[in-house]
Every structure is written in C-alpha cells, then in structure tokens.
Amino acid sequence: MPRFDGKSVLVTGASSGIGLAVARRFAAEGGRIICAAREKERLEKVVTGLPGTGHVALAFDSSNENEVESALALLKVEKRVIDAAALCAGRHLIRPLQLLKVFHLDELLAANLRSALLCTKMVMKLAPREGASVVWVSSAAAMIGNAGEAAYAASKGGLLSACRSLAAELASRKIRINVVAPGVVETPMSDRWLSQLTSEQKEAIQSRHLLGFGKPEDVAAGIAFLASDEARWITGACLTIDGGLTCH
C-alpha cells in the first residue's frame, strides 16, 4: 500500500540499523527519501539501493546546530518540503555511574535528545500547509531499570516527555509528533554492545523479550504506521515495540 506516494520523507540515521530499514520501508511505499547521516559515501550507497526515485543523500550531524541549519538552508534552496520525518539517529552506551563522565552524558544527550529537537525544528520550517508527521525513536530502557544505563535511559526518556510537550505546541501547525520505544533490535549498534557481554548475560537479556530480539523491519513498520495518514488522530503517543520486554 503506497501510503507515502509522492511524499518527501526525512530519515536521520539512514545509513544503518533501524534508520536504514525505515528508509527502505518508506521508499517501498512510494516516498521520496531524504537520507541523512554523517557519512556521505555510505548514504549514497543507501540511496542507490532504495526502490523508487527522487531520493537524495544529505550528510550532516543531526546533533550539531550549525550543520542542521546548513542542511535546512540547502533544502530551502532546492524548494523541498518535508511531509514526514523518522528521526532515528542515536547512540547507545552502558556505563556504570562510578565510571560515568560528563562527556559521556553530553554525548548521549546530544545524539539522542538534541538531535531529535533540532531536526524537528527543521521539519517545522519545511512542513507544507497540510501538515506533517514526526516520529522519534526512544527505547524501552526509558521505562525499565537496567544497571549501567542511567545516562542512556535519561536521554531516551527525555524524548517521551518532549514528545508530549511538542504535540501540544505543534498541533496548531498540523504537525503530529509521536515516539516509538523499541526493545533490543538486531542492528550493528546492538551487536557491538552485546558482544561485550558473556553468553549468559546475553541469554538473560534475550529471555526477557517474550518474542525474542527484534529486527529493524519490526520497528520500521511501527514508524511507518505512525507517520501515515492512518494515524492522523494520534499525536503525543508512545508505541512500544519491544517483543514483550516491558510486560514484566
């Protein structure tokens, strides 16, 4: 079903993991994708592999205000609008409080929270009069307690709170904003931190997911729904996509 036929969709973090799956999902449903991440070469490969036409690679750091402003200026020159956005850029870190440094906290807040706010501001400036939809990627870690994830959970939990506030603020502009909260999804990012655990620790985490670990495509499906007109009466909401992790 081409729910995004002819629509322009911004996807940050599009070079891998959930962001890549999201870009592919939106493109398969007719969207023209603005693929954003920091590495131009990887983005261009992603764009080449997407179905459909009209896709572009836009390399910038979504947590850097100057780079976001430059990207915004470029899109304005090209007279592009943004009908929907899936803001998937982010970072994960396990760090016990005893070893947590200020720069760890700053990096997590920048990558996970500041980037979402800055790019939502971009969407606000490029949204058509008919409105737009924005979906953020939080985490089930914002809802449950995991040792060593205080800073990460705080950065992802901030998205849940900010989403509700912005839903109220942007409703008059016909801009909906929602958030998804995935459990552990099999991506290069999760592979890196899971590889640091023992097999027993990894099995313990997986067993907490009633349906096992997820795939990027599982999260992409939920994001596509929230961004589509099928969810036109949903804003300020959190869709948990975690294989049952938060059920217990």
Strand element count = 7
**Rg, Cα atoms, Å:** 17 Å
Q: Distance N terminus to C terminus? A: 35 Å
Helix content: 40-55%
The secondary-structure class comes to alpha/beta
Indicate the proportion of strand residues: 5-15%
Discrete helix count:
8
Shape: globular
The unreliable regions are: none
Quaternary state reads: single chain
How many strands, what sense, and barrel or not for the largest sheet?
7 strands, parallel
- Average pLDDT, rounded to a whole number, is 96
Arrangement of strands in the largest sheet: 3-2-1-4-5-6-7
Order of helices and strands: EHEHEHEHEHEHHHE
Would you write up a description of this structure?
The protein has helices at 17-28, 40-49, 65-77, 102-126, 150-170, 188-194, 199-207, 216-227; strands at residues 8-12, 32-37, 56-59, 84-87, 132-137, 175-182, 238-241. Helices cover 44% and strands 15% of the residues. The radius of gyration is 17 Å and the shape is globular. With 248 residues, the chain is of the alpha/beta class.
